[in-house]
């Protein structure tokens, strides 16, 4: 069966998407009166410049139902069956719109809620590509991705809470207190939504080491195929530290460093870093 894996631009897997023949649907980023397309005509550095200049976060928007219909149609017209791995339904209307768009094609398009975002979503898209390349049917791919969804570790640590505050995700008092006391909350995806969990204190370097030690203890068994160290233009030294710590503590076949796209960056801010993989 000729199968096309697709996903949303929030997958944060960079050039791996094209290399693995995964088609990407861009979400919209709105700066003032101008609309851009994530990964197409806007970069995270544009987000930083806009926020620094205006003090406001960009707005983001899901593609429309018609956009998804058009996106899926070109693959169906080529005789392909589409398996689309969407951004978490609880984080965006993208999943609902993709499901509506898929209705025009019956069993030629499947839409799976990743219940994740960033490279957590990307990990499932890559796993779907692995299964496609192994000769699995669309139904088998969907079943396996749905089984794996609860096991994806999607977590990250922000350096500062400025962007989360501007986005209404934490109070001004919490932001000032965290920044002053060097508190870095662990943000984790749980059942499709982001929740603040453990609070680490100290430098980002110290917090990253503790974070990785906690991940190792929490996930003694994991899919060794790949792991992402995903960051929003974090300091090079911090990325290098996290990558080295991952390689020391875990046994992944691949440790992939990726930069978060404009949509994810617009919500978390500069110097946020996460380590993402599929547990068992």
Keywords:
280 residues; alpha/beta; Rossmann fold; Hypothetical Protein Tm841, Chain: A,domain 3; 2 domains; four-stranded parallel β-sheet; 11 helices; 41% helix
Structure description:
- The protein folds into two domains: 3-149, 3-Layer(aba) Sandwich (Rossmann fold), CATH 3.40.50; 152-278, Hypothetical Protein Tm841, Chain: A,domain 3 (2-Layer Sandwich).
- The protein is built from eleven helices and 14 strands.
- β12, α10 (236-249) and β13 (255-259) form a beta-alpha-beta unit.
- α5 (118-133) packs antiparallel against α6 (138-148).
- A four-stranded parallel sheet has the order 2-1-6-7, with helices on both faces.
- The protein is α/β, with parallel strands linked by helices.
- 48% of the residues are buried.
Classified by CATH, the class of the largest domain is Alpha Beta
Distance between the termini: 28 Å
Shape descriptor reads: globular
Can you write the helix and strand succession as a string? Answer: EHEEEHEHEHEHHEEHHEEHEHEHE
CATH architecture of the largest domain: 3-Layer(aba) Sandwich
Low-confidence stretches: none
Percent of sequence in beta strands: 15-25%
Measured on Cα atoms, how large is the radius of gyration? 18 Å
Q: Can you count the helices?
A: 11
What is the count of β-strands?
Answer: 14
Q: What's the pLDDT, averaged over the residues?
A: 91
Share of helical residues: 40-55%
| Main structural class | alpha/beta
The largest pleated sheet is described as: 4 strands, parallel
Number of spatially distinct domains: 2
Instruction: Write the CATH fold name of the largest domain.
Output: Rossmann fold
Strand order of the largest sheet: 2-1-6-7
């Amino acid at each position: 069966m000729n199968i096309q894996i697709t996903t949303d631009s929030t997958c944060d897997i960079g050039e791996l998407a094209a290399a693995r023949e995964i088609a990407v649907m861009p979400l919209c980023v709105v700066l003032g009166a101008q609309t851009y397309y994530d990964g197409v005509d806007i970069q995270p550095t544009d987000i930083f410049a806009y926020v620094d200049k205006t003090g406001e976060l960009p707005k983001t928007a899901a593609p429309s139902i018609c956009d998804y219909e058009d996106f899926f149609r070109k693959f169906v017209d080529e005789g392909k069956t589409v398996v689309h791995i969407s951004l978490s339904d609880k984080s965006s209307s993208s999943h609902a719109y993709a499901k509506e768009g898929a209705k025009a094609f019956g069993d030629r398009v499947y839409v799976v809620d990743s219940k994740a975002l960033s490279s957590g979503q990307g990990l499932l898209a890559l796993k779907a590509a692995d299964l496609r390349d192994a000769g699995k049917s669309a139904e088998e791919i969907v079943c396996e991705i749905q089984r794996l969804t609860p096991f994806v570790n999607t977590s990250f640590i922000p350096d500062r809470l400025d962007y989360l505050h501007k986005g209404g995700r934490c109070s001004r008092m919490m932001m000032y207190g965290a920044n002053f006391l060097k508190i870095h909350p662990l943000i984790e995806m749980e059942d499709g939504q982001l929740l603040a969990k453990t609070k680490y204190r100290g430098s980002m370097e110290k917090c990253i080491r503790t974070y990785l030690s906690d991940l190792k203890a929490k996930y003694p068994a994991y899919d060794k195929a790949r792991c992402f160290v995903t960051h929003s233009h974090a300091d090079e030294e911090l990325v290098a530290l996290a990558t080295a710590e991952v390689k020391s503590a875990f046994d992944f076949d691949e440790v992939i460093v990726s930069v978060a796209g404009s949509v994810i960056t617009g919500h978390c801010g500069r110097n946020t870093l996460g380590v993402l993989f599929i547990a068992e």
